[in-house]
Amino acid sequence: MQEKGFMQSLFDFSFENFVFPKLVKFLYTLVIFLMALVYLFIVIGGFSQGTGTGLAALIFGPVIIILYLVFIRAWMEVTIVLFRIYENTNILAGKEKDGSV
Q: What integer pLDDT is reported at residue 91 of this predicted model?
C-alpha cells in the first residue's frame, strides 16, 4: 500500500488509502472553532434574554463545550486507532507498504 496524497486518496475507488486520517487535524481544529463560535452566540443570546440567563450560559457553557470536545476527541482517536490497526494488520499479514500484496 503506497501512501498517496489527499486528492489521490479522495478518488481512490479501491479504498486502499484513506482520507479521514489526513483530515483529522483539520476537522478537530474546525470543531474547536465552531464550538467556540456556538458558545459565543449562546452567551450573547443568553444576555439578550436576561442577565441571569447570560450568566448561566457564561458559567455552564464552558463545561458543556469541554464535555462535547472530550466526546468528539475520543471518537476521533478511536477512529484513528482503527485505521492504525488496519495498517498494522496488513503489515503482519504480509502486505508491504511498497504496494506489493
A: 87
Mean pLDDT for the stretch of residues 12-19:
76
∠ CA 17-18-23, rounded to 5°: 135
User: What span, in angstroms and rounded, lies between the C-alpha atoms of 83 and 89?
Assistant: 10
pLDDT tens sequence across 41-78 = 999 999 999 999 999 999 999 999 999 999 999 999 99
| CA geometry: angle 81, 87, 91, nearest 5 deg | 140
Joined grid coordinates for residue 33: 472553532
Q: What is the tally of helices (H) and strands (E) in the chain?
A: 3, 0
User: How far, in Å, CA of 57 to CA of 7, rounded?
Assistant: 41
Residue carrying C-alpha cell 444576555: 47
